[in-house]
Amino acid sequence: MTPILLAAVTAAAVLHAGWNAALRGGSDRLWSMTLMMVAVAVVTGSAAWVLPWPNAASWPYVIASSLIHTGYNLSLVRTYRTGDLGQTYPISRGSSPVLVALGAMAFAHESVTLASALGIALVSGGIVSLAFQGRHLRAGTLPAALTTGVLIGAYTVVDGIGVRLAGDSLAYANAMFLLWSLTMPPLFWVLRGRPPAYTVAETAMALAGGLVSILAYGIVIWAMQSGAMGVVSALRETSVVYAAILGRVFLKERLSLGRIGSCLAIAAGAACLAA
To answer: Does residue 139 have a pLDDT over 60?
Structure first.
């Protein structure tokens, strides 16, 4: 992986942890997610007036990804209802790099080097181990978190293939984000009806989280245009290190020595991937 790709995906990991912390910190996470998607819709809808549309060959992937992302939204909200950020986030994110690598081999005919395989294993193992540091999983945590991980793997592989057919990574990302964002307000209306009373601070945090999510995943889509999907996915999931720190600082969640050890394993895996 080139230094530019490495730096970009690492930055995406930090941004990704930030918007997940914003979502986890909201008092009504379904409404927070809806507000995030409203911000995404405004930005991508405006950008659609000046950006080109992706090639026709990529549109099935644009549509499929937007639908999978909608399922991911609902699964992520459910996941954060059943556990804290430092526990559920690692399970969801740690299970996806292996799934992405396998999916890329099966559907995009990508190969994985020994160093990359070791890096993916270290990152995934270190991430998942973060969830089991001195606590028991609550009944609903594991199924919801694993479902989220499967959906992450699915949309990552779909986007990795789609962006390579699109002709323009920015055009692909904008089209996918636009379709995805338009699904959440109607879903909220069906599931809840009236929105809850939110403070100005909560509303601003959710809207900002939506803007950050565009940049975070937009970078990943751009990186997958030329980088191996499994490697990009594993590097992106190092965001759990930053999520653990954010959970400790802002959400008052525990950061133990065991978690620090897991973070070191993730760092070692990232070093293998960057080699």
So the answer is: no
What's the rounded Cα separation, in Å, for the pair 31 and 207?
A: 11
Name the amino acid, one letter, at 155. Y
Give the helix ranges, DSSP H, for 167-275: 169-181, 184-191, 200-224, 229-236, 239-250, 257-274
66 is written with which tokens? 């937007």
CB neighbourhood size of 190 (10 A): 8
CA terminus-to-terminus distance, the chain: 7
Among residues 133, 15, 161, 19, which one has the least CA distance to residue 76? 19
Cα distances (Å, whole numbers) of residue 83 to 9, 76, 127, 190, 196: 27, 11, 16, 25, 22
On whether the CB atoms of residues 20 and 205 are closer than 8 A, the answer is: no
> What pLDDT is attached to residue 178?
97
Q: Tokens representing 257?
A: 């020595």
Gap between the Cα atoms of 144 and 153, Å rounded: 14
Q: Which residue has the higher pLDDT, 156 or 10?
A: 156
Amino acid sitting at position 20: N
Structure tokens at 228: 């191996």
Number of domain units in the chain: 1
CA separation for the pair 54, 39 (Å, rounded) = 22
Q: Which domain holds residue 104?
A: 3-274
